């Protein structure tokens, strides 16, 4: 078994154990493979080991991999910061966008979504830790933004995404993820997705309701930023 396949097996067991610890169905938690800086061959290997959902942060890198892997029925998620000049390509080439944090971007994605494609699945990125260096809508602005996005015609608002400030303290992890879950519950919208948790904190995220955990390092190994 390849290292990637072994890693997927290990991650599946971590997800299963974390879900069962809080009486959740492990099948309610999806593993989103974060494949930035990794070659298409790694994604093909992950596909062969059973993964279908892949998250990319950089548009040009993602489009290159999509072209290389066009023979595979992969589901592409955009999870990085979004510039206005990138919205058309994102709307045309992805099934999910996890990183919408302002209405202008959502409006452009809706306008530019090809009519022959189903609505684009949207998560609003919320800056739950209040870090100035991090993208995301403030909790205070979230309700109005969610209402506005939910009314756009070619988008389907699914839920929230968050990247809390990193910490090894399990109590702090739980508190951050619980805050995201609470924000979603307070919005009064029919949302079903919480995209939160990464390699180091997926157990806490699952305990607080994550439905997607975004895993890069624990799946593919350390990132190589020397690659294009």
Automatic annotation (TrEMBL):
Keywords: Pyridoxal phosphate. The modification N6-(pyridoxal phosphate)lysine is found at residue 36. The keyword Cell division does not apply. Pfam families: Ala_racemase_N (PF01168). CDD domains: PLPDE_III_Yggs_like (cd06824). Coiled coil: none annotated. This is Pyridoxal phosphate homeostasis protein. It comes from Pseudomonas petrae.
């Amino acid at each position: 078994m390849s290292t990637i396949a072994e890693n997927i097996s290990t991650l599946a067991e971590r997800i299963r154990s974390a879900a069962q610890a809080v009486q959740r169905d492990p099948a309610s938690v999806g593993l989103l493979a974060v494949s930035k800086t990794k070659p298409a061959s790694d994604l093909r290997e992950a596909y062969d080991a059973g993964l279908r959902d892949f998250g990319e942060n950089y548009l040009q890198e993602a489009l290159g991999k999509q072209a290389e892997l066009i023979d595979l029925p992969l589901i592409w998620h955009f999870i990085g910061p979004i510039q206005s000049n990138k919205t058309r390509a994102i709307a045309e080439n992805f099934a999910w966008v996890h990183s919408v944090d302002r209405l202008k971007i959502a409006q452009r994605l809706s306008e530019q979504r090809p009519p022959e494609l189903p609505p684009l699945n949207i998560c609003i990125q919320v800056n739950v830790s209040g870090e100035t260096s991090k993208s995301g809508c403030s909790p205070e602005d979230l309700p109005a933004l969610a209402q506005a996005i939910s009314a756009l015609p070619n988008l389907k608002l699914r839920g929230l995404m968050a990247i809390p400030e990193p910490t090894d303290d399990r109590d702090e992890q739980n508190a951050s993820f619980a805050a995201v879950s609470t924000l979603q519950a307070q919005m009064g919208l029919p949302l079903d997705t919480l995209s939160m948790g990464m390699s180091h904190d997926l157990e806490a995220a699952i305990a607080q309701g994550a439905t997607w955990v975004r895993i890069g390092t624990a799946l593919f190994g350390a990132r190589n930023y020397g690659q294009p």
